[in-house]
UniProtKB/TrEMBL annotation:
An example molecular function term from Gene Ontology annotations: zinc ion binding
Region (Disordered): 292-331
Entries under PANTHER family matching the protein: ZINC FINGER BED DOMAIN-CONTAINING PROTEIN 39, ZINC FINGER BED DOMAIN-CONTAINING PROTEIN 4
Protein name, as recorded: Uncharacterized protein
Lineage summary: Eukaryota, Metazoa, Chordata, Craniata, Vertebrata
Entry keywords, A to Z: Metal-binding, Nucleus, Zinc, Zinc-finger
Chief localization: nucleus
Length: 331
């Protein structure tokens, strides 16, 4: 029979305090702390912060929080394991590299090299191979040295099919005297022009984003995207200003494409757009042919006149001896 005594219920803190944190659970917590530091890119000193220690002591009072040095050692070991695994994946495949130089908030310069490759299951993957401080000038020789060091470190020498960079934006900007702070105040018509061109630029931005996606193969999208741009976004519509219409026209080069033997039939265009192009090109060809025929006839008549003059007036000619020529009688 239950006793009638009513004792106070235990608190959560007292229950947790009695639970022992065994080695298996302690190892799991340590691994997740390392995951947090890695995935959230948090400073390792987080494990020494007062708030973090209060949180862990509340959730797991029996857990002994590792020191900053222990977390550093574990993260370095995980890095070496991941690097060895990535090296194995890259050992039998060609890769493409992208590189960029950037500056932190402390104005310290860095270089990052990213590798892009395709796995055996046709999945497009990318991985950061290098992020290092650039204490030297960002010259071509120094950047090439960093790239070569990165390729040698990862065993990629001879298997890099392309290296894409931002065209040395920082160097180009340094040579450009016009910076953002020096731009003159825009006039009202320029603001209107920006507003009119913005929708067209938005379509081009979307196209650039799709073609630059890391995890999607872009070569198969080239024709559909180009067709969509030419047929929809770059079509001149009622209400387009002269500047917008001119901008669209410069992108659409149907006649130049038709002159290419590979695309002379313009099969990817609709008849309403293909026929005018054919007509214009035919008119130009006929005009050129007529001009050539007229010039040839003019040259023929000129040669005949020169020949007739020679027969009539050249000394010692047979016409001179018989005293007659075209259009004249003997004296």
């Amino acid at each position: 029979m239950l006793s009638g005594k009513s004792g106070s219920q235990p608190t959560i803190t007292s229950v947790l305090a009695k639970r022992v944190c065994d080695d298996r659970r302690a190892e799991g917590i340590t691994q997740r702390i390392c995951n947090m530091v890695e995935k959230d890119m948090m400073p390792i000193s987080t494990v020494d912060s007062e708030g973090f220690r209060e949180l862990i002591n509340f959730l797991e009072p029996g857990y002994r929080i590792p020191s900053r040095g222990t977390i550093t050692t574990r993260i370095e070991a995980r890095f070496n394991e991941s690097k060895a695994e990535l090296k194995t994946q890259l050992a039998t495949t060609n890769v493409a590299l992208t590189t960029d130089c950037w500056s932190a908030l402390t104005t310290e310069s860095y270089i990052t090299v990213t590798c892009h490759y395709i796995e055996q299951n046709w999945q497009v993957k990318s991985a950061v191979l290098l992020t290092e401080s650039m204490s030297v000038r960002h010259t071509a020789d120094n950047l090439a040295e960093k790239l070569n060091q990165s390729m040698e470190s990862w065993g990629l020498t001879g298997r890099v099919i392309a290296c894409v960079h931002d065209n040395a934006r920082n160097i180009v900007s340094a040579k450009n005297p016009t910076r953002m702070l020096g731009v003159l105040e825009l006039r009202d018509e320029y603001w209107q022009l920006i507003e009119d061109v913005a929708p067209v630029l938005a379509a081009l931005k979307c196209t650039t984003t799709v073609m630059s996606a890391e995890t999607e193969v872009s070569i198969s999208n080239a024709y559909p995207i180009t067709f969509s741009l030419i047929n929809t976004h770059l079509m001149r519509v009622q209400g387009d200003s002269s500047k917008v219409a001119e901008f669209k026209s410069k992108v659409r080069t149907s006649l130049a494409t038709m002159l290419d033997p590979r695309h002379k039939h313009l099969g990817f265009l609709t008849p309403t757009r293909r026929i005018p192009g054919n007509s214009i090109l035919l008119e130009l060809a006929v005009a050129e042919d007529v001009s050539s025929t007229t010039d040839e006839a003019s040259r023929t008549r000129q040669r005949r006149r020169e020949g007739d003059t020679g027969r009539c007036g050249s000394p010692g000619s047979r016409a001179s001896e018989t005293h007659f020529c075209y259009g004249s009688t003997a004296g």
